């Protein structure tokens, strides 16, 4: 099975406090630690497991700048066979549809049976997989948390629905799936593994290699664009306990007692 | 000219989902003068349609035995046939909305904005949408060109439900139009729904929940949470990453893809407060948060906040409570 997995380099929210810069034009990027989007990592693991069962290859692809190469290498260290970087100044400012247009062009250069994306990335949009599938006229399923291979024409998938229930579908190949966390346990990638793929060449494809018209992608084509960032106010805010850690413990014990928090 | 807005109605077993009237509120925020049409797709939907005419001037019905389970690939095909190009369509952001929205926007050649939490008016054909990024740590304004139509998903709970004052609406049967050419979407076939496994505790009944998130760091640290839960006489629950890592059973996960809980007291330890997590907490419990990042969104919805390393704070808290006994 020939599998393509779309991955994105994102600030690691478990490692960083995200804050807005003074003009509101962006988040503070100075000290951010980046990693591969959590959901994509599950998608790559799933692809590797499928390949190991039935053969074929796993290609990871990312639309981004030169720094996105590091996440491609990381996923290759995990076991992906090949990485492709889609990068061009003309891609800047693309909206979801623009990104899907770029990815579609790369997909049509190959012969893939299965395209995976993460269920969502740092912007919480979860849009690329569904758009890609519609553009390719391939079937799509989102929030996939189980993949079972049936034959070379179709697979059985489980998708997550409310309350932790699972919707089972049969879906024809080729198809696009967006992968939900928890579908597998992504393998650990050590420094050694990364070193092994450090010198593997990663081809870079721009608009001309992909045969893309510059006005079908990027800022000019985008119907959706971000204006600014700001810090949300959700509620009145918690009362913060002050003092030393022991004092906080004492205050909290009193509060819990009065609110029925200790039986 | 006032916008034509369609809102897709979620319903199950003849019961209309709470999000239906939230969509009315969202549509009103987009354009107070908009004409709002409800779309109902399913089988045996008459009761659903008839109760919606109290809130919508127009209810479009697509009803067929083959539509008893909402397969989004099928429904996408049906909607593409009947929705006029240039319309604005709203879906609740749930596993169905996420499934259908992006692809439908492509087929209708409109823009797509996922997970809207607010609207700030339309200017020059562009709708200003409020969204969140980085699990709610920052918000953004997004401009969306809706002049050629748009599909938007709306975060459940973000808009307060309103009854539209359009009593006496009509139901328009669009089934024949939608089904012309047969049932679409055959490449993905629905088989069944597998119910979530029942665990050893039912956290939906717990009065005190001691809930642990990714901030716990390592599996072996979960013990300090169990000890605190024992000390306060509560049950252990958790956020999703803890279940993904298989450190606790799925039945203990709080959130939109886990359990909906309604305790009296909820302690969130090392949980950032994503809307998917908070969406599973109902009944306004007394909420205590321990998190080392004072900017974590969960502080905004909690009653009491403690900015500390939970690995240090929780054992001290447990010890103090045990001393009292
Ligand atoms: C379709 C879908 C459905 C989902 N359903 C759910 C759901 O049902 N339930 C759910 O929970 N999530 C759900 N999620 C995931 C959700 O988006 C978040 O990723 C998740 O809730 C984050 O969990 P968390 O808060 O534990 O982790 P994080 O967001 O990583 O937060 C960890 C927090 O711990 C703090 N911390 C770190 N170390 C320490 C320390 N030593 N002491 C104190 N604090 C510390 C950090 O400051 C941070 O705020 C869903 C996502 C999707 C896409």
What is the CATH domain class of chain A? Answer: Alpha Beta
* The CATH C-level class name of the largest domain in chain B: Alpha Beta
Quaternary structure type = heterodimer
Shape of chain A: globular
CATH topology annotation of the largest domain in chain B: Rossmann fold
Low-confidence stretches of chain B: none
Counting DSSP E segments of at least 2 residues, the number of strands of chain A comes to 13
Question: What are its keywords?
Answer:
heterodimer; A: alpha/beta; Rossmann fold; 9-stranded mixed β-sheet; B: 325 residues; alpha/beta; 7-stranded parallel β-sheet; 10 helices; 18 strands; 29% strand; binds flavin-adenine dinucleotide
SSE order and pairing:
The complex is a heterodimer of chains A (263) and B (325).
Chain A: E1 2-6, E2 9-11, E3 34-36, H1 38-54, E4 57-63, H2 69-78, E5 82-86, H3 96-109, E6 114-118, H4 128-136, E7 140-149, E8 154-160, E9 166-172, E10 175-179, H5 191-196, E11 204-205, H6 218-221, E12 224-230, E13 239-240, H7 245-258
Parallel strand pairs in A: 1-4, 1-6, 4-5, 5-11, 6-10, 7-10
Antiparallel strand pairs in A: 2-3, 7-8, 8-9
Helix pairs in contact in A: 3-4
Chain B: E1 4-8, E2 11-12, E3 15-16, H1 19-30, E4 35-42, H2 46-52, E5 58-63, H3 72-82, E6 88-92, H4 95-107, E7 111-116, E8 118-123, E9 126-133, E10 138-145, E11 150-154, E12 170-173, H5 175-179, E13 188-194, E14 208-212, H6 222-232, E15 235-238, H7 240-244, E16 265-269, H8 275-278, E17 286-290, H9 298-301, E18 304-306, H10 310-324
Parallel strand pairs in B: 1-4, 1-6, 4-5, 5-12, 6-11, 7-11, 14-15, 14-16, 16-17, 17-18
Antiparallel strand pairs in B: 2-3, 8-9, 9-10
Helix pairs in contact in B: 3-4, 6-10
The complex binds flavin-adenine dinucleotide.
Protein described:
Chain A has 263 residues and is of the alpha/beta class. In chain A, 28% of the residues lie in helices and 26% in strands. Chain A has helices spanning 38-54, 69-78, 96-109, 128-136, 191-196, 218-221, 245-258; strands at residues 2-6, 9-11, 34-36, 57-63, 82-86, 114-118, 140-149, 154-160, 166-172, 175-179, 204-205, 224-230, 239-240. In chain A, helix 3 (96-109) crosses helix 4 (128-136). Chain B is α/β, with parallel strands linked by helices and 325 residues long. Chain B folds into two domains: 4-179, Rossmann fold; 203-324, 3-Layer(aba) Sandwich (Rossmann fold), CATH 3.40.50.1220. Chain B has ten helices and 18 strands. In chain B, strands 7-11-6-1-4-5-12 form a seven-stranded parallel beta sheet, with helices on both faces. Chain B has a five-stranded parallel beta sheet with strand order 15-14-16-17-18. In chain B, strands 8-9-10 form a three-stranded antiparallel beta sheet. In chain B, strand 16 (265-269), helix 8 and strand 17 (286-290) form a beta-alpha-beta unit. The longest helix of chain B has 15 residues, at 310-324. Chains A and B meet through helix 3, helix 4, strand 7, strand 8 and strand 9 of A and helix 4, strand 7, strand 9, strand 10 and strand 13 of B. The complex binds flavin-adenine dinucleotide (FAD). Flavin-adenine dinucleotide sits between chains B (135, 213-215, 239-241, 253-258, 270-272, 274, 276-277, 280, 290-293, 296, 309-311) and A (13-14, 119-120, 143).
